[in-house]
Amino acid sequence: MSILSSNLIRWHKKSGRKDLPWQIDTNPYKVWISEVMLQQTQVQTVIPYFLKFMSKFPNIDSLANSNENEVLSYWSGLGYYSRGRNLFKAAKIIQKEFSSTMPSCLEELESLPGIGKSTAGAIRSLGFKLKAPILDGNAKRVLVRYFKIEDPIDLNKTSIELWKIAENNLPNKECDIYTQAIMDVGSLICKRRNPNCPECPLKRKCLANKENIQNTLPNKSPKKAKPIKKLYWLILQNKNGELLLENRKSKGVWKGLWTFIGFEESNSRLRYQEKLPKDYKILEEGIKTQHVFTHYKLDIDTISIELNKDFQNLDNNKAWFNSDELTGIGLPAPVSKFLERIK
To answer: Which domain covers residue 296, as residue numbers?
Structure first.
């Protein structure tokens, strides 16, 4: 066992997290759901979503026997909605090909939608207590600083080097404790900014700490400015307080979710608006908001209208929803935030 792994295991037994919801009466299914939710999302944000999701989908069969709309309704607000869609797809595959039992083989896990190498390693290690490396963001940061890896972390050669280091430092026993420990140290101590080095179990051997360069690592390649895309929402409300939404059946980050009627050009929105019954009332206009995705920023311009007459000229992907019905469908975060504002 390496000094790195022995120090992490010793620290975790004394100070590591042991009472997170997915750690209580844990099993491979719980680990899978939590690990997918924790991709790109903080622990405290995930906890209420995890509890709500598990109450509805406590096992693989309950998830596989559901439908994508229902699954996405329990994912609303978490973002990166392909994660929710992939959970549903993978559950169907596990039900059919693995008799509703999570596989423990890394290759079989990685063959499932939404499960990459690190997530597969976490499921095998934390869920089955079997030896497997992980390399999530927290683990990367710990290893980069400990071994003073100064090449940009987003380079392929750096990734290859880190995977070798992760594999070489795996203990032969208590691998689940080691895996949780390196995650916890990265999350709680070896933070992205202002790491708490005096409390770190690895401080004596950490090369970055010795040279006092921990705040400069990891390095990344220079960032390019994110492009900006435009979206023009038309928010229609009838006299009963129902809202008209459209389902994003086409490909994209909001595929399968319900959103306000959206247009890529303001003229397109205007043409649609001209088809409405003429005695409508504009409630708000010129309301602007921005939503940031991984690869671009979305500028949203909004017009909110109350209709005085029924509007039935609906495409197949549009429907009216009252406030109670809105809680049972998948909504992107910007839509949910806007609905909170107009309640």
So the answer is: 228-342
Cα separation, 258 vs 319, in Å, equals: 9
CA pair distance 247, 331, nearest whole angstrom: 10
For 258, the 3-state DSSP assignment is strand
Residue 342 above 80 pLDDT? no
Q: Is residue 312 very low, low, confident or very high in pLDDT (cuts 50, 70, 90)? A: low
Question: According to the model, what pLDDT value does residue 311 have?
Answer: 75
Q: What's the CA gap between 129 and 27, in Å, rounded?
A: 10
Here the tokens at position 286 are: 């010129």
| pLDDT > 70? residue 313 | no
Q: 302-331 burial by CB neighbour count: b if 16+ within 10 A, else e? A: bbbbebeeebeeeeeeebbbeeeebeebbb
* Residue 174 backbone phi and psi in degrees, to 5: 55, 35
Here the CATH number for the domain that contains residue 241 is: 3.90.79.10
Question: Is residue 208 domain-shared with residue 266, that is, in the same domain?
Answer: no
Distance CA 136, CA 40 (A): 10
Which of 277, 199, 200 shows the shortest CA–CA distance to 236?
A: 277
Q: What is the mean pLDDT of the chain?
A: 93
Answer for the pair 50, 33: CB distance below 8 angstroms, yes or no.
Answer: yes
CATH classification of the domain holding 180: 1.10.340.30
Name the residue with tokens 């559901």: 66
User: In angstroms, rounded to a whole number, what is the distance separating the alpha carbons of residues 86 and 7?
Assistant: 36
Q: Which of 43-57, 218-232, 310-324 has the highest mean pLDDT?
A: 43-57
Which of 35, 108, 110, 264 is labelled catalytic?
Answer: 35
If asked whether residues 113 and 257 sit together in one domain, one would say no
Residue 274 known to be catalytic = no
The verdict on 162 and 90 lying in the same domain is: yes
What global pTM score does this model have? 0.77
Quick one: 253 and 327 in the same domain? yes
